[in-house]
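Table S4 entry, Cytochrome C.
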Amino acid sequence: MTSPPSHLWLNALLQALQFVQSTWLGALYALGITDDSHGAPAWPWAQRIAGENLVIDVALARQFAWMLAAIAFAIVCLLLALCWRRAWRWLTAAAIGALVLSPWPSPTLWLTAAVPTSFHSSPTGFTVDSIARGSRIYSAQCAACHGADGRGEGPLAATLRRWPPTMASALLSRRADGELFWHVLYGMRDDQGVTMPGFVGRLSDREVWAALDYMRVLSASAGMAAGGSWPVPIALPSVAVKCAGRPDRPLDAWRGHQRVRVVAVDAAHPPPFEDPRFLTLLIRRDDGQATGPATASVRKVATVAAPGNVTPLFGTRADCVADARDAWPVFAQIAGASAAGLAGTEWLADRDGWLRALAPAGRRGWADGGLMCTTSTSLQDGDTASARDPLTATLREMDNDPVRFVKGGFVH
């Protein structure tokens, strides 16, 4: 019998640490021991447990887990010693022995600096509208230093004492959302002075969160330009969905239940046929963005499934459309493509709402692969059905290798 992969216990450990710290913060706030900051409970200490460090160093994570196990064992022994007087000596000795034999990694390795908003989460919901708003804020306030492409080479970057970091890496994901929010508002500094100015008084809280939403999309775009893949998993942006003959629903309604395929359609790339393995969501260029005589036909093809789109062999063409004019440019940036060349591109999102695979326009669909952010890409032995159907193989890889959660980072 083989032991489970290390990421399983590591993922459980990191989620437990996040839950304990968040619950502890909620209890302190309920008791009036800590105040609020920017509308949520404020973390009262200068440090927190650094899940992002544990995920990088698995050996450190093992030592930390053994340390916690030894502390828990010692506490149980001491509690039993209070109730079982006859064995108190043995129980006390066992507690001391566990603490002595346990590895005690240096606190500097598993603790990191914290700010009052370290455990805050974005209220925007990572929507298409929020990303589009963040794009405008970023262009006006951030691009001069960080660059329009997010690579840290803006026109003012050379005037700074330290060059801004590139977003074409996992750096953005290695920081907790609330800490990024804090640093944008209040800036950053080191022993020699300010390394990034703050925007408090210039941007509202919601504008900062929107800018951070856009930076995640920009990170995906920069990663595509630099290496042809996303540096970290990116969530499927939320949007209102209109389906012919059915009530409008938010895209989040499918999260946790159904995979989603997103397809960019136009007159030359009609909607694909429905597939029971996932919801097919169509995106199209808004009338104000598209030009030329093809615009009217795009609206007709992408909005409803006309009777001519139903065949006895394939069934009905997909008819669920993203009801947001900014969906096209947002998904174009995620794909690292121009808006003009996006039609025909497809994305796959897993049941948890993470975009996992991309089939760019002009390629042979899923026959060329396209799975992003994975740790295992080989098919199972004897999986001949998947070998014959590249899309099935991609879906199975997504299901078998899910995104692992880390507050401030991901295993991938």
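The CA atoms of residues 150 and 198 lie 18 Å apart.
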